[in-house]
Design goal:
0% strand
Length: 322
């Protein structure tokens, strides 16, 4: 816009420059060559439309605008980075869980390879469902402890979970017991950060202190366990699960839990369960009778429990004599 050429600078414009500008404005060619700074006045001096700010603060306004733009870009980058980090964390957790499930699935399916393929798939699927239910019961139980929920409401929540997953009272009792025992020792790797504070930081110094912790935990939750142990068969199921927990087998294989710590106090553990009315005499003898027909390798915990079973027999004899 030639009319604005005079606004480009406060310095006087030469007559030669004015004539050249006039010739360009009329569509002609300047009479003489001119040395134009095309960066400032445009090609052949045709000019630019310059926006001159009030008070001459164009550079400051432009600097402020650039600063705001950079801040916005920086904030957007930081938010994007945080979101990426969180997504990566979630991805790692999901990948670890998926790896565990796939490894467990592969292990179980290999063991079942000799059976009919349909039976193998059903067994593997049941194994995955049991693992899922175990985790659900454990996390529900831990959340109730953390939030100090009354035992009556804990029963309601676990019953709802049992119905939703089509499980039995014994299934709930099995994993309540093993989670309760786990709280006697440091948190295993599979426990989420939210509940790790419920676990002690260190192992007990000796077996006597481990037994003391065990008795305290079982005493605190004995009444809850009793509500899910409806009959003798349920108690036998719990004892079989206790074997798996201590032997890191079945639902406890490769979970990182510390059930093996209770092997050394297995008879005392059964004694504590009996004293707290979690285990009855009849259920203990029925479990022992069932294990008598197992292979020698499967009688490990029956042999460990023998001092407790002998004590029960003697107590029963004394009671009969009275």
């Amino acid at each position: 816009n030639v009319s604005n050429v005079s606004n480009v600078s406060n310095s006087p414009i030469s007559s030669e420059a004015s004539a050249a500008a006039a010739a360009l404005a009329n569509g002609g060619v300047p009479a003489s060559d001119m040395d134009f700074d095309t960066h400032v006045v445009g090609k052949m001096g045709a000019g630019y439309l310059w926006r001159v700010g009030v008070g001459g603060h164009d550079s400051e306004s432009e600097h402020a605008a650039n600063t705001i733009t950079r801040l916005r870009q920086s904030i957007a980058y930081d938010v994007h980075t945080v979101l990426l980090d969180e997504q990566h964390r979630i991805d790692r957790v999901l990948a670890a869980e998926e790896t565990f499930l796939e490894a467990s699935f592969a292990s179980k399916t290999n063991d079942l390879a000799s059976e009919d393929s349909d039976d193998s798939e059903d067994a593997a699927m049941e194994m995955m469902q049991d693992h899922h239910f175990k985790e659900e019961v454990s996390e529900t139980f831990l959340r109730c402890i953390k939030e100090n929920i009354s035992q009556e409401n804990v029963v309601i929540e676990l019953n709802g979970l049992k119905i939703a997953e089509d499980k039995t009272f014994a299934d709930c009792a099995r994993f309540i017991l093993t989670t309760c025992l786990g709280l006697c020792l440091p948190a295993p790797g599979g426990v989420i950060a939210e509940y790790q504070g419920l676990y002690p930081e260190d192992r007990p110094a000796n077996l006597r202190k481990l037994l003391k912790r065990t008795h305290a935990k079982l005493g605190a939750w004995a009444s809850l366990l009793q509500k899910f142990l409806k009959n003798e068969d349920d108690q036998i199921e719990v004892l079989l699960t206790l074997e798996e927990f201590c032997g890191a087998e079945g639902d406890f294989e490769d979970t990182g839990e510390f059930g093996a710590e209770f092997v050394a106090i297995f008879p005392q553990l059964l004694q504590a369960m009996y004293d707290l009315d979690i285990l009855t005499e009849d259920a203990a003898f029925a479990w022992a009778e069932e294990k008598k027909h197992a292979s020698e390798s499967e009688k490990k915990f029956l042999n460990l429990a023998q001092p407790f079973l002998d004590w029960l027999e003697n107590a029963e004899s004394e009671s009969d004599d009275d």
